[in-house]
Amino acid sequence: MSTRTFRITVRGAFDGLTDGQRAELLAAAPEHDMLRAEFTAEGHLTYDLAARPFFTFRFLESGAAEEDILDATARAELAAESWLTDRGYGFKQLKSQAQDLSQAPLGKRGRREAARADGRA
Length: 121
Description:
By secondary structure, the protein is of the alpha+beta class. Helices cover 32% and strands 29% of the residues. The chain has a four-stranded antiparallel beta sheet, with helices on one face. The relative contact order is 0.25.
């Protein structure tokens, strides 16, 4: 049985931040810049608080079956909530989106490599 890779994004908005929390997030903003976004097992947070109050966590999970994506998504949401709550940051409107990379359509390069592997190119 093959392992499936899941990319999960958890989006939301900061809510009711104090001036101190806002300053703390702004000071840490370079670590959470959207240009450095990546999917990681522990979750990678990005935001641009100077522009808008929204954030995105990006998680990378795996599972053996297609149904495992539901549990992976629930774990990602819980991890995002825990990270925010542990730091005392208010949040609202959490929404998740998950993608099973084994089901993702191949781009031109991927199709070309798959054709080579099948001996058709």
